[in-house]
Amino acid sequence: MQTQTAQTDSKSGNTIISDSTSTARKTVALGSETIRNTSVQNVPLERLNTDLHRIIEQKLTQRVFTESMDLQITPPNLGKVNLELIKTGMAISINVITETDSSRESISRNLQSLVGTLRNEGYNPVQVNIKSEHKNDLMQDNQQKQPNYKDQQEQKKDDSQEFEKILRGEENV
Predict the structure, then answer these.
(1) How far apart (Å, rounded) are the C-alpha atoms in residues 115 and 93?
(2) Domain limits, the chain
(3) 20, 86, 93, 99: which has the fewest C-beta neighbours closer than 10 Å?
(4) Strand pairing of 32-44 and 64-74?
(5) Does residue 138 contact residue 107 with C-beta atoms inside 8 Å?
(6) Cα 68-116-132 angle, rounded to 5 deg
(7) For residue 82, what pLDDT is reported?
(8) What global pTM score does this model have?
(9) Rounded to whole angstroms, how far apart are CA atoms 103 and 48?
(10) 8 A C-beta contact, residue 35 and residue 58
(11) Higher pLDDT, 2 or 156
């Protein structure tokens, strides 16, 4: 059994339709549709373009739509990705936020063929914005720097103690 509830957002006047059997949230306003998938979907990197192209084809008759989703890109080292697909007329924007620089680079290379396909189908402009949150990369950098920092602090302490001994005449230069 499927249950839907409809609410009107007091700020925007948009109707929000919530489906109890789905984790998707739709906002319908003046011929446009915004869908936010709140569940994380597992998607192999090699299937990402096909899935995005399928979404665009399914929404072909809609002049304006926005679809946001959280994806777990496989292989697993590519991490989670937040993706937003926006269509306004024949303009397409794909905004991607990745967890690491390596996943940003892999996804960027992968999306180049989708951009070409969409342009060949008449979509113009097609913009892709990819950003990295650097979560994993920063943690790894900090973990690598931390032992070096400790070593440097110990070396400074040893040098300071040696210098004090020289000043007191306890050690020969």
Answers:
(1) 10
(2) 32-133, 135-173
(3) 20
(4) parallel
(5) no
(6) 45
(7) 92
(8) 0.57
(9) 13
(10) no
(11) 156
How far apart CA 142 and CA 147 sit, in angstroms, is 9
Q: Is 8 helix (H, G, I), strand (E, B) or coil?
A: strand
What's the gap between Cα 147 and its chain centre?
A: 30
One-letter amino acid of 53: H
The first and second tokens of residue 116, run together, are 């070409």
**Alpha helical stretches, state H, the chain:** 48-58, 101-120, 135-168
Task: For residue 130, give every residue at least 6 positions away whose Cβ sits within 8 Å of its Cβ, in sequence order, or none.
Answer: 96, 97, 98, 104, 107, 108, 111
Using only C-alpha atoms, the chain has a radius of gyration, in whole angstroms, of 26
DSSP type of residue 173: -
Q: What type of residue sits at position 168?
A: R
Among all chains, which residue has been given the structure tokens 């929000």? 16
CATH class of the domain comprising 32-133: alpha beta
